[in-house]
Amino acid sequence: MGRLSSSEITKIATRLNNIVNIPVLGEQKEQIIFEKIINSIDTVLYSILPDEIYDTIHMASDGITPTEAGIIRTRIEKIVAEKINIPFVSEEDELKLIRAFLDIIEAAIQTGKNIIDSF
How many structural domains compose the chain? Predict the structure, then answer.
């Protein structure tokens, strides 16, 4: 289990659903799949980021500098990409999804921002 609420997962999945199309599936089924993907990535992030950093996605008063957030994002992208496998999309689209999600998290962990402000 990760740190995102079910409504946050749904909102992020909707955003990512607009970035990548899964062939053969309708939008409702795609949405469900994207929610599962976001939940999986959230779980990976929860396992590799200290609570003191990942918890800041919900607190605009806490956080780290944009430079620090960028450094963390760069470091975790490879780890997340290695742990997440989405067999029904191309490697290119898989990386697009991971990067789009990490863009949101990178913004959310910065001081003065939170997850809601980030998408």
Answer: 1
